[in-house]
Structures are given as C-alpha cells and as structure tokens.
Design a protein that fits this description.
By secondary structure, the chain is an alpha/beta fold. About 30% of the residues lie in helices and about 20% in strands. The chain has eight helices and ten strands. The protein has helices at about 45-55, 75-80, 100-105, 115-120, 150-165, 180-195, 230-235, 240-250; strands at about 5-15, 25-30, 35-40, 60-65, 70, 85, 170-175, 200-205, 215-220, 225-230. It has a six-stranded mixed β-sheet, sandwiched between helices. A four-stranded antiparallel β-sheet has the order 2-1-4-5. Helix 4 (about 115-120) crosses helix 5 and helix 7 packs across helix 8.
C-alpha cells in the first residue's frame, strides 16, 4: 500500500456470513495520504468492520475499495498488509518471551533498539522481578514454565507491538479497555505523534479521544451520518454533539 495514494471506498456494503442484515451500507469515503481519521459511534455501529475493510482484512460484499487506482481485491494479502500496523481490541497473547511478543510484529525488519523506549512509554514493568523475573527474556506462558500476566499488562504489550512495526498506515482500534483514562489519553497522544506523516485510522466510542483527528466520521446503523472535525461537528448540534455532551458528564 502506497502512503502517497488515497484510500477510496465507493458504495461499499458488507454482510457477515449467515447474517441477513448488512453491517455496512452505502459507504463512500476518501482518506487522504497523511490524514488522521477518527471513526466514532456506539457499539455495533460498524466502526471496526469499516476499518478492516479499508485495509483489506475483509472483502466488501458490494462496492469497491481502492488504494489510488488499484482495487484492493486485486492485491495479494502479503502485499496489502506489508505497510499496515494495527493495535486492536482483540490482541494475541503469544507463548514467547516479552521481547519476542513485542518484535513479532516485524520479525527480521524491526529496530530492536526501540524496545526499551516502548517498554518505558507503555508502562510495561520490565524491571519488576515479581512480574517479569527475567526481564525481556521472561517467557509469557505457564505452559512453558513462564509467567501469566494481567489483562492490563498484556494490553500494554500489544500496544508496544503495534508501535514497534514500521508502517505507512496505522490503525488504533480501542485497545485500552483495561487501562485507566489518564493512561489511555497518553496512548492516544503518542499514537498521534507516531502517526505524523502517515495515514492513521482511530476507532473509538470515547469521543474525547477523537478530538486529535484531522477529520471525524460518525457511524450509526452501518452508515456514515456525519463528517467533520470536532469543532464543526459540535456546531452541527447533531449525533456527535449529543454523544459528546452525554459522555462529558462522566468526567464532571
């Protein structure tokens, strides 16, 4: 995937196997190179499905998705994912060492010198011998005489793994469920910094995390119902403004 080409979705619909109702309908969207796009909406709105279609993890039931003039369906899986890095809600827990759990996202190509910085930035308590008795060489599997971690520690490792991979397109799909709001905010800020000059997609139902995006699309019932930046959407007094105002009460 060429970072200098836009991602274009035209009349895209998607229906999961053995499901009558489509999850997405009539999606038209262009993401410009270097743009940070936030996809927001309630649970079940179609946010994650759309993001996975945009990078070729899923194939559209109808319509087309292109990178520039190239239809994603015509690109091999190996090629389409070469320059994509994703940090997802559902992350893998590999029966490997801490070091290898991070660098597995880019084995043979990544810069291992980045690992100490990623460990520090993501609050992975590598020096705590009660959690990681052998530091980076701690095996993360009881099955192989290693240790078992909390959900929060696994989540931090998954986030570090996503940042370790050198990519042109980055996806951040709500990976912070086991992390407190202050740390979550820091992760999203770091994501925005790491995504400079790259195309980035943020999927979230917490609208405070979407404010940093260049553009926000609001999804409802598998459709895009509003588009704009935070200020524009607040002025519209529509779905986004109502959701943002409701969520603001959580922190007051």
């Amino acid at each position: 995937i060429d970072k200098e080409q836009p991602i274009v979705a035209e009349e895209v619909s998607f229906c999961y196997p053995n499901v009558k109702e489509p999850s997405l309908q009539g999606i038209n969207l262009t993401i410009q190179p270097g743009e940070i796009l936030a996809i927001v909406g309630e649970n079940g709105a179609g946010k994650t499905t759309l993001a996975r279609l945009l990078v070729g993890l899923y194939q559209a039931t109808a319509g087309s998705i292109r990178i520039g003039e190239t239809d994603l369906d015509e690109v091999s899986y190996h090629t389409r994912f070469r320059n994509v890095s994703g940090i997802f809600q559902r992350y893998q827990r590999y029966a490997l060492t801490l070091r290898d759990n991070i660098r597995i996202s880019d084995f043979g190509h990544g810069d291992e010198g980045k690992i100490p910085k990623l460990i520090s930035e993501n609050h992975i308590e590598c020096n705590d011998e009660t959690i990681y008795p052998e530091g980076l060489d701690t095996m993360l599997s009881r099955e192989f005489d290693g240790v078992e971690l909390s959900g929060g520690q696994w989540q931090r490792i998954a986030i570090a793994r996503g940042f370790y991979r050198d990519s042109k397109i980055m996806i951040l799909d709500e990976p912070t469920a086991s992390i407190d709001p202050i740390e979550e905010s820091a992760i999203y800020e770091k994501f925005a910094e790491a995504a400079r000059g790259k195309t980035a997609i943020i999927i979230t139902h917490r609208l405070a995390s979407a404010k940093m995006a260049d553009r926000i699309i609001v999804m409802q019932g598998g459709r895009i119902v509003e588009t704009g930046n935070h200020q524009e959407l607040m002025r519209k007094k529509g779905v986004y403004e109502a959701m943002y105002t409701a969520q603001a009460k959580w922190y007051q």
